[in-house]
Design brief:
It is a single chain. The strands form 4 sheets. The chain has an 8-stranded mixed beta sheet with strand order 6-5-14-15-16-13-17-20, with helices on one face. It has a single domain, classed as 3-Layer(bba) Sandwich (FAD/NAD(P)-binding domain). It is an alpha+beta fold. β10 and β11 form a beta hairpin. The chain contains 10 helices and 20 strands.
């Protein structure tokens, strides 16, 4: 299909990479984002070799590497801090590191700048009220009362996707796992040259995201899915670190700013059946939300964007493109969701413990395969 007029709902990682991929093929693209300020929370994200390969495909590699810091291994520790394995990561792009850490605001800027430069129309503070389809396209009514016609619609609006709820109201949606994640930015010591993962009932990790910064994350059991007020949040995070390895406990004293703590309940979701209905299709967390235990949530969304754009270019109808896209992505995305959830359940004592070193090595083998 040539020169389609496409609406993307959601201005995050999946929506912006999809816009970039589609603009490279000459399609007209509009992105709407519900947040009028287009903000992202200020911690970091791990991105592995398959993401570097995807960024090269999108023509973003130079800007992306300039905004990130690379590393080539994952160091796995026992709960007491003992190093038990250092898992090498495959390099998939010649001359580049195997993995990078990058601040989420920095990644958002790289993607937003490129999408805008490529000619994507960005509309902020806007959601979809209704999608009405006919044989020729989709008539979309927006929350500000305006409307427009598009050839088709892409729902890239995250784990609590409004678009998914409109298409598949019978789907139960994401489920709380019993575990939550805490994140906080800290100064990066010079010797931190890889991702460090600590096993145990409270999982933890240290991730470099720039020459000056790293972030620490904790995955903790949170029965009943509690919500914590911002006031006192740093103290709660520090308390969660009391049983960790000594080198991690030392970092707790530096966690002082309540507003800088990012706390998120972990949810998982895999859409059953089709990933589209009529002329509307889903991608990223809207269709396969994963816990962060393998660090591949954003990676799967970025790969989705590339595959969907390829299938749109080669198919004769949107429905053919959407079906082919799901066929190419289903097994890989389901693997990440299911394997990540196994690690989560093992940490919670709701399943057998998972060897993080083996799970990480296996994941690298899987995502190294072509998309």
């Amino acid at each position: 299909m040539d020169q389609q007029n496409i609406l993307i709902v959601g201005g995050g990682i999946s929506g912006l990479t999809s816009a970039i991929a589609l603009r490279r093929s000459g399609h007209r693209v509009t992105v709407i984002e519900r947040d009028p300020d287009w903000t992202v929370y200020g911690v970091g994200i791990i991105q592995q070799s398959n993401v570097l390969r995807a960024m090269k495909h999108l023509g973003l590699l130079g800007d992306y590497l300039s905004a990130s810091v690379g590393f080539d291994a994952v160091a796995v520790h026992a709960p007491d801090g003992t190093l038990v394995a250092k898992v090498p990561s495959p390099r998939l792009v010649e001359g580049c590191p195997a993995n990078v850490g990058i601040g989420r605001p920095a990644l958002q800027k790289v993607l937003a700048d490129r999408a805008t430069k490529a000619g994507t129309e960005i509309r902020l503070g806007l959601t979809v009220d209704a999608i009405e389809e006919d044989a020729a396209g989709a008539h979309v009514t927006f929350s500000d009362g305006s409307s427009a016609r598009f050839d088709f619609v892409i729902g890239a609006d995250g784990v609590h996707s409004q678009t998914r709820a409109m298409l598949f109201p019978e789907e139960a949606g994401p489920q709380f796992t019993g575990q939550s994640v805490w994140r906080y930015n800290l100064p990066r010591p010079p010797e931190l040259d890889s991702l460090h993962v600590y096993n145990g009932p409270t999982g933890a990790g240290l991730v470099p995201i720039s020459e000056e910064l790293m972030y620490i994350y904790l995955t903790t059991p949170e029965p009943g899915n509690p919500r914590y007020p911002e006031a006192g949040l740093a103290a709660v995070m520090r308390a969660r670190m009391e049983t960790l390895a000594p080198d991690l406990r030392e970092l707790a004293d530096h966690i002082t700013d309540d507003a800088a703590v990012v706390y998120r309940p972990l949810e998982a979701f895999m859409l059953s059946g089709d990933w589209h209905k009529g002329r509307t299709v889903l991608l990223g967390d809207a269709v396969h939300a994963t816990t962060p235990h393998l660090g591949q949530g954003a990676g799967m969304a970025i790969e989705d964007s590339i595959v969907l754009a390829e299938e749109i270019d080669s198919a004769e109808t949107p429905q053919q493109a959407f079906a082919a896209y799901r066929k190419r992505r289903l097994e890989r995305c389901a693997y990440i969701v299911e394997r990540s959830l196994e690690i989560c359940m093992g940490q919670l004592g709701k399943g057998p413990p998972v060897d993080n070193a083996k799970a990480t090595a296996e994941m690298f083998r899987v995502v190294s395969q072509p998309i």
